[in-house]
Structures are given as C-alpha cells and as structure tokens.
Amino acid sequence: MFGKRPDGYHNIRSVMVPVSLYDEVTVEEADAGISVECDAPGVPTDAANSCHKAAALFSPGRGPPRGFASGSGRRSPRVGAGGGSSDAAAALKGLIALTGKHPPPEALLAMAVRVGADVPFFLPGGAALVEGIGERLTPLPWNVPFHAVIVRPAFGLSTREGYARLGREPGDPPPRGNVPSFRTFTDVAAAVRNDFERRGGPRIRRSRRSGGNCVRGSGAAGLSGSGSALFGLYASERLAREARRKLSGSDAVGTGRRVFVARSV
Question: Is residue 98 classed as helix, strand or coil in its secondary structure?
C-alpha cells in the first residue's frame, strides 16, 4: 500500500487471483427504471447495491430501452472477498449481452472504477498484478493451483476505517512494479502479506481469532483486502477440507461465522 492520492484513494500494488466462489447474477429488461433483487439478508437492493450502481452508469445512451432488473443468488462471502465487485462486473457484462451495446474498453473501465476499485479486476478474468487504485491491470500467467479456506466472521470492517488506520500521507504514485512470477506453491505462500493487518487494531485481531484453524496448518494465511474475511492457502483440497471441518466443529458454534472452501481458477 502506498501514499494517499489527491482524490482520497490510495495507490495499491497487489496480486489478485480469482477463486471458484461465485454468485448467480441474472440480467433482464424491466418495465421501467432499475430494480435489484437478492436472496441474501442484509444486502441492499437500492442505489447502494453494486449491480444497481453498474446499471445506472451503463444505462445513459446504452441501456435497455425500458428498464433493467437484476437478481442475485449469493454464494460468496459478503465481507472483504470481492463478492459485490464481481457481481457488479457480471452486471456490466450482462448489460452488454442484453443490449448489444459495447462501450469502448476505456469507457467500460471508467464505469467499473466508479462502481468500485476492485470491479475492473473481474472484467477480463484471470490472475493479475493490480496497481493504481485497482484500474491498472497486468495479466499474470497462473500455473500454481491452490485451495483456500475463507472465513467470513459475523462482523464486518469498514473499508473507510481500514484505510484511515493505515495513516498514509499523500505522496507521488509509485513506479510500476516488476511483474512477479510464481512457479511453486511455496512461492505463492511466501508472497502473502497485507498492510492492513499491521495497523488493523482490535477488530483485525478479532478477525484473526475468528479464523482459528484457518491460520494454523495452512501454507499461508492473511486478511482479504481490508477485511474482515480471512483466508488460508493449502496445497491440496484434502488439507483445505480438513481445516474447514475443524472450523465448522464445536468451537465455531454460535459465532455466526461462515466457512468456505474454494480453488484457484
């Protein structure tokens, strides 16, 4: 994580790899306006919803002639694991398919960034070195399969609060970094680090405790983004599912956390 920009965002440098968790997003015409439905409790369906934001940005001059409706069946963690961002990217792709209108790549990227800094990553698919505020993508060839146990605690962490705790001063944007290469699972595990964990305060430590055995026994573990989801990386599905069984046992009863197993894709 680097200095704060004049627009209030921070410059980042991160390696992001998609995993097999996903939501089901449908896009269709509606009588008028924009409507969003979601079967997961607590997810906003008004203008604060990422799919709603994506449709509002796409629609002027391009959108459905009558309206837009989106439905989402959530399977991914809601907190700190990119679920809302990937849904927004899916909505943009769905709108392109629905309308037959293809914005220029730079216009589509601008829409994605306005919805959220993580949204551009989900447009092309595949692993990438992500820089700027998330809009500068360098594709990475990815030949190191892994499995991840993702723990979503019962509580969330505010992204705004997480960045504020970093305490980074304004500064010039960093030069573009070298494109890393990962040849083995050991290379991947050794590269796991997250600046948010250093200044995260008690709620980050609470997230770590909630992760429990996700941390112990994994090749590497860390916070996903600014939190609060935690992940542990495993070289095999067997080890990942064994860790999940431990987390889903008696020590997890009553905590309200959710535990997922995913693989790199």
Answer: helix
